Structures
1.
Amino acid sequence: MTRLGGRAGHLVFGAWILLLAATPFIASNYFVKIATFLAMYAALALSWNFIGGYTGYPSFSTAAFFGLGAYSGALMQNAGLWVGFAWIGAALVVSAFAAILGFAILRLRGHYFAIASIALADVLMLIASIWAGVTGGGEGLNVKIMPGGPDFIGRVFLYTMLGIMLAAFVTTVLVDRSALGFGLRCIQQNEDAADMVGVNVTRYKATAFTLSAVFCGAIGAAYASWVAYISPVDSFSILLTLKVPVMVLLGGPGTVLGPVVGSAAFVILEETIWAKYLDYHQAVLGVVIVLLLFFLPGGLLRMLSRRSGR
Amino acid sequence: MEYGQVIANGLMLGGLYACIAVGFSLVWGVLNVINMLHGSFIILGGYLTFFAWLHLKVNPLVALAPVAAVLFSIGFLVQYLLVNRVITQPVLTTLTLTFGLDMILYNAMNLAFEATPRRIVLDLGRLHLGGVILPYDRVVAMALALVLTAILYLVLRTSRTGRAIVAVRMDRDAAALMGIRVNRVYAITFGIGALMAGACGALVAVVFPITTSVTGLFLGKAFVICVIGGLGSVPGALVGGLALGMIESLASFWFGPQQAILVGFLIMLVLLMVRPTGLVGKKGYE
């Protein structure tokens, strides 16, 4: 795994990002859309990896961050703010939300933390449905459509998502090498022992939780501008909350490249195989999860490095 | 008199809620597993009861026993064949596994039954108590929910299997050393959790429309009740269930039905911060 985490891993990632960035010039709009989703899910998976992979906290709040980002970005944009500022603003709102709530719910452990983090998305979804005067309620909210035609818009959002993915990746590399990453791994292994030897667990966990939120917020806002319509049920979808951790588990939690590999494998699998069976979509995803947990603990990366190690 | 009705509604709802949460709480307490299948188990029980009533003309209250037996077998097998394999792994693994299984069951139910809400109409009439109106079907459902909860309590306290479950909850390793087959106890416990969910589903079908789209709602209620009442005891689930019933009834009277659900979640989050053991939480599952 160290082999893939080092320079070779960065090269693989660089080639991947170039390939995705080249899609508008070499492939049809369908592939541009897929590339955008690949970048988007990679960034979400990299985000979750901070709290779920490195720190080992069973966080299920991806949808809460994503949805909050979508709504705050859409509202700022509709209030007349420039799109880019609206995305950055949404990222800041979501980070503040995560930082404040992090101090409260990160005192919980295990199941209690998992339930609190699931409930966050439920609470936000209910607020978005109830507060109809601002959020449009259950009917959803229209976002201004960007001018410039479908080709141009497709490229704008591809490069936006790629940019966010790159930012999340670079942050992961930096965290992985820093004292923060070391501390988070200590917390994952034994939180009480980490506390005893002087790791500031409260601050480290809150940092990891905030890092797991900031890019989700930006992506939520960019996604809202992309699809130009958001509703409470879609924005705070429980499926998203589950999909993202599954992608990381598929790739390899607590590694730099794992979330990228996992999300890519997942999205490609989803698009090529089971998007054709819409009626069974959820069931197939369920089967994938069960098989993954039984036969691929540790993810694809560990399987690869084990093979090559022999 | 308005408040009399609101309180009566809260109590009727609360009885059902206690029954909904008690199986979830048992599984969480003994197996240390958050069973994401619980909401779907309830709805599956509701569907089986509905179809027994529609096609075979079986009274829902009679159908309750066989439906509960079917759900017990499903739960037992799920735990014995699948969840037991990852039972010692972290929360993330067990929760994700039951989540994945839930997606399979949910999808299967959607395909088999379609999501149209269905409701059993018994029309037993109403009981007028002063100015308070109590539909008999609701009263019966609440009473049965409380009876089931009480039976579970007695089973855990007095039966051999019940004592084994409590012993495993207290100390898994010590229980194994005393000759208890832990994996079998786990499977039985999960089975009982599913049994309670199925029985509740039968009762829910009498009172509410049954549709797959509410599985998440019931699961969320089980979370809230466990946190309010405290995890791992029958009295905890009872107190939590009745409390949530009253809270929702009052909140929906004051603010509206959607707001009532929000109030429940917010109370749960606050309680998690200040009193994670719940109102009557304690260690052993007595």
2.
Amino acid sequence: MATAAVTQERENYLNAEYGIKSWLLTVDHKRIALLYLMSITFFFFVGGFFALLIRLELLTPAGDLVSADTYNKLFTMHGQVMIFFFLIPSIPAVLGNFLVPLMIGAKDLAFPRINLLSWYLYVIAGVLYSHCILTGGVDTGWTFYTPFSTAFSNTKVIEAGLAIFVAGFSSILTGLNFVVTIHRMRAPGMTWSRLPLFIWAHYATSIIMLLGTPVLAITLVLVVLERAFHLGIFDPALGGDPLLFQHLFWFYSHPAVYIMILPSMGVVTEVIPCFSRKRIFGYKFVAMSSIMIAVFGFLVWAHHMFVAGISLYSALVFSLLSYLVAVPSAIKVFNWTATMYKGSITFSTPMLYAFGFIGLFTMGGLTGLFLSALGVDVHVHDTYFVIAHFHYIMVGGAVMGYMAGMHYWWPKISGRMYPEGWGRLAALIVFLGFNLTFFPQFILGYLGMPRRYWQYPPQYQVLHVLSTAGSTILAVGYVLPMMYFLWSMRYGKIAPDNPWGASGLEWMTTSPPPTFNFEETPVVTWEAYDYANIPAPEEAPIER
Amino acid sequence: MSASSDSPVAVETHDLALRHHFATKEQQREAASLGMWLFLSTEIMFFGGMFCAYLIYRRLYFTEFAAGSRSLNVTLGAINTAVLICSSLTVALGVRAAQMGKRKLLVVLMLLTLVFGLAFLGIKGVEWTAKFKEHHVPGASFHFEQTELDGKSIDPQHIQLYFSLYFAMTGMHALHMIIGVGMFVYLTYHSWKGRYTPDYYTPVENGGLYWHFVDIVWIYLFPLLYLIDLKK
């Protein structure tokens, strides 16, 4: 980072101070965003490594690469690392941290020191979890289902639970900071109806973080107390009820899906108008659909429990409510498409990822409707159909959006352009690799391949081989951007302040921005996405 | 507006009055207040998980919950409730004293709150010790002597469930009290140093909000745990 800054002439947040201390004790939201970026990238590759081992094991029907116990730990730790240490913090803690103050014209988040504290909590949680991995790992599945987790598993459940408990507090503090910042720190003239939709998406996400995460926290505390001190809240042998655990767990963990996908939707909503040179279609509907997703998200948790023995009538209600989530999601998809209609579209890297997002998220969302139908869910419950469905949402949706955002704002973050050709190639590789990995899993699941199995009947092998092949292609697609991003910090072209001719306050300051973001506080007098009045970049950074 | 002063002392006083990223003190105060309320809403959800478990199990196993409740010391519980209500009063008066700039009164009120908080924890400790001696702590050595209540038999596992919830809920509440006591040590010290003025007393106000929240949790815990079916 420091080497890139040397060649920059203007003073900015990267070259304002040097030395390890200026990073570890910084309260600048932009530097904290970079600290998060490094930490979550580390965990992304840890989680990815587990995923590759899982796929390699499933290359052959026999359980031959790892033992059954190791396999249980691999899928558990893959899930927990990816969800709690990558996806939940990914866009909010990196891009949100960097952009929320910039987009609303503020000097920083409302509580800069709490922001730094949230990163330290994340690091403590990460160290604790890494220690858990290195000293034996955990095998409960990412869901910690009781009574297996509290009474039978002989792995490091307590340590993993505490790590995720601490990571949860990091996420609560981020959400709290965003809500207060969006309410209290907007620049003069930045009314609620002029906010970028990225901000609306983060507002909705933060509400879920604030109201959902504490419930996960207390649930994990109760699991730890039950395992350590035999306080039998969930264990039937001690008088408790495991269904209660599932209710409490999914009360957070279903909305958590929206913590992962809403920020991605926010990114895509910024990228599409910019590279279509058009105002977003239906601003208010897109903004409100984010809030609706956050609200509905809290009312559908029991669709994870249709076969767990809940009453038929409550299952019917939860099934119906789950269908409802499709309404605001579809509003977004239709509005993005309508924005592109008759737009002047550029096939730049962020836009390619945004296209990928729309297609894959739609697939994931529609198969979600299959799963909210009671009869179908009973048939494909706990099969690879479910695995494919949520990977289409989380990898095809959330990670695609994250990659779109990283490319779109990379010039602002680093002050350098990434190599466009490599960017497009990587986007293509990710899209192909992703579909090759996960599409066969829909078929596998429909044919009856259960999830979390270490070996399988030989008739499933062809599809498993395709999936494993896809996962290696996908891995290439993720390593490539990391390499050229690092390369560009030193050798990339110097980025202009607004390389895409984009709207939004973050593009009106320098690249990279100064420590306090703006020379003077901006006064907003225009509507968001006013692309009719913003000239396209004179020297288009990429040919049409 | 610039925070870049060479003298660390100057930066320190500047920090207290107005942090660099706010435009006005009003904005800073409102942000801190909104932040605290949001934090309390996360606390409601945190305790909410346990209240939810309580609600379900109490409805399912009412006899056991009533029996467990009768084994608690209602007098000590009531005294503790009174202690906490008094401490809420001293905090509220403390915020007023800070607003009016009465430093000595503020110090006394913060100290009083601290003492009430410690008194609560002491009494709670006495109650827990008694439960420990009676083998009412869930686990291998758990034993509940009573086998029936009002002609209904008591399930030994479900009575244990009552005590699991009792210890989880009062324990989590006590943990919040301990954090609150630590906070009032800090507030007492800085009140004594004269850090809070009518112009800047946000920590006293937010500390007060936290304390009131912890009190309210107890106001619910007391009847829910101690006063189930007290007839006879």
